[in-house]
Amino acid sequence: MSTYRLKNLLSPHSVALVGASPRHGSVGRAILNNIRKAQFMGEFGLVNPRYHEIDGIAAADSIAKLSFAPELVVLTAPAHTIAGLIDEAGRRGAAGAVIVSAGLGHGPGSLAEAAERAAQKYGMRLIGPNCLGIMMPGVSLNASFSAHMPAAGHLALISQSGAIAAGMVDWAAQRAVGFSGIVSIGDQLDVDIADLLDYFALDEKTHAILLYIEAIKDARKFMSAARAAARIKPVVVVKSGRMAQGARAAATHTGALAGADAVYDAAFQRAGILRVSDLRELFDCAETLGRIKSPPGKRLAILTNGGGIGVLAVDRLVELGGIPAALSPGIREKLNAVLPPTWSKSNPVDIVGDADPARYAAALEALLADPENDAVLVMNVQTAIARADEIAVAVTGVVQKYRAGQRMAPKPVLAVWVGAEPSIGDLLSGAGIPNHPTEGDAVRGFMHLVRHREVVEALAQVPPAMPSEFAPDINAARQIVAAALADGRSWLDPIEVKRLLDAYDIGAVPTFAAADAEEAVTHANAIFAQGATVVLKIMSRDIVHKSDVGGVVLNLTSADAVRKATSEILARARSLRPEARISGVMVQAMVVRAKARELILGLADDPTFGTVVVFGRGGTAVEIINDKALALPPLDLHLARSLIERTRVSRLLRAYRDVPAVKQDAVATVLVKLAQMAADIPDIRGLDINPLLADEAGVLAVDARVVIGRVERKFRGSGPANFAVRPYPSQWQRHIEVKDGWRVFVRPIRPEDEPAIHEMLKHVTMQDLRLRFFAPIKEFSHEFIARLTQLDYARAMAFVAFDETTNELVGVVRIHSDSIYESGEYAILLRSDLKGRGLGWTLMQMIIEYAKSEGLKAISGDVLTENSVMLAMCRSLGFEVKSDPQEHDICNVRLAL
């Protein structure tokens, strides 16, 4: 992944402040003071044509007249001068600018567009405009007008709000929490959240990333960057505007259920980001993530001198999904030996109100040695018997001794000192122990660690594939939608909906259309002949919710009843909705499945993230019940199961009393099929199946509605125009013959290829591994291979080649595009015993073809100079080969496309 020139902006060797001012209270003066106070070690200069010097520092009247070429320029000048200043900085050789100034506007013809054009001429990167600035403690740079400079640490903060960033700095100053970097991104004219996620994901000083988000601009780019970052380190987000959307009018039930904030929730879930509700919870995350690593499980041991606060902590732990750790018999004996007889004998370990430092230390040592817990929370309620500060000293001493003796990652230890003096908090923080004001805050901080571990595990799982027998009739489905669009309609009629569901093998009640009562009787008689009763429903493209006009009549048993009901339905609909276009009634067999559950499944269109899949409890009161969950497509069975499990109705799908469980994966399979339908036919803008009846025999769609409309491409790159996460690109599957008639099957990589990758690596020599990874690698972990096999196909692609005879994996080639989607970096690895047979050449040609189809302008790579075979192939394919100016044993290769 590329972070083009971001290092120049965030870790510059030279800085120029343009718009520096001697006027107190001005932004230019505040930033000048902050840069000086932070003691930036690189070259620093001021630009202001009105002053020869400011506060003892010489000022040039233009960027061109500075005595050095600034790597970064910080702009606080008036908005109308910004584009010209960027052009001047680009000519001088600047890599980028932080535009603090506001008022540049938006869109075509604006000052912002002029600034962007100026930057693009020189390949400059821009942060802002309208931002607080940047604070990078690692290089002693505070190019912001924040009131404080954060200490150096391991948290990165990316914020769309300057005020939030400043508030985080103030909080961190009180809690001794340090940052690797704080970036206020403002209007995101160029550098956006995704770019910075890429940067901090690869920054070794950053252990966790905090986000404050108001809105996402490029959802596909954001999802790709967030998913990649979350695999490596915790990413925590607080998003404003939870309630801003409110209830909105929607054509379908799923559209009403898919409110904007619910879609953001689904996106964060898919990306592996931890969402918190407010700044306090974000602070809790910062307190824990900035100091300790995630535990291997969620069993928490609680040590306290107050029984009540211990019980409150257990209540909160269970409420959030944690587990109170059990005490092993051996540890109970150890605690008996060092504690008074009145101790609680269970978790929480209440060591009684008169506990002194020695008692705390002995109990904590025992709990840290107990394999039955994954972390320890130490709490102290101050008493007049033992000094709280002395207990804190004893606890920190035990923790430091314990950590020093651990070869593997030590258990997390958290602390709560109720009503403690600030000095106690400083002591605990100095020892790297997260400390919180209340037991609830501490438990929540612990569960954030747990959730991150669960997220990483989920991202690294190998999901099952769809059943191989699923083969939808895509052409038939597309023709149904295309014909309706050509007719100028925005809804499919019930017969078309039934044919659409049939094309994707989604079982639905047979449906007939009748223009009048006599035609309805004819269809009803055929149903009566099969021993079933009849349901009638109003058929109108303008009446979406049929029950609103009394448009549904159930359990009709005779032709006369059908005739009468048809007349009444039509008359009622025309009376209540005189403007509606009414084409007749639908005639269906009455479905009686006494123990079936009513569900809703559907597709909705979101303006930011495109298509979303909705699942929940169905029926006429679906919006009132509001038991639903959302997910971004594409889905596999694993993701579909996870979507179902996030609802309350999922519990009803299991067996209870005399009700058998719903057929395994029957509902999940329909969700996967709907996601595939959305990928195949982007012009489906909304879809409801409500209700879908589910029981031990399977599933059946009783009623469905489909909204259609021409869709404009929402996201750049290939793949469905309406998906923020690109689906599996099956169009790149190839059967290829290489040298001597050897036939291989090449396709994009899948998560389930992990075992085949492990097997292939057994046939790769250590020398070839060194040439590929630039270091000898003896063992490849599940997590490492999972990162290679689980792509979102938005900015990365990998092709795997299988021998068609043996079905063994024989080679892999991959490419990862940069953050501005202009060039990609490639890598290739073949089985050592099969080299020299033309496979490498074939895979390289295929990845070049793919890069061209994606609109990339170049492919590049780094090759060890001793890898003569690869360098020769690159030259033959037209790559330009140059020695790396910094690494003399590496060649940079580049192919212009």
UniProtKB/TrEMBL annotation:
Keywords recorded for this protein, A-Z: ATP-binding, Ligase, Nucleotide-binding, Transferase, Tricarboxylic acid cycle
Keyword flag Ligase: yes
GO molecular function, one term: ATP binding
GO biological process: tricarboxylic acid cycle
PROSITE patterns per record: GNAT
Record bears the keyword ATP-binding: yes
Residues covered by the N-acetyltransferase domain: 744-897
SUPFAM superfamilies given in the database record: Acyl-CoA N-acyltransferases (Nat), Glutathione synthetase ATP-binding domain-like, NAD(P)-binding Rossmann-fold domains, Succinyl-CoA synthetase domains
Highest rank taxon of the organism: Bacteria
Family statement: In the N-terminal section; belongs to the acetate CoA ligase alpha subunit family.
Protein name: GCN5 family acetyltransferase
Organism: Bradyrhizobium retamae
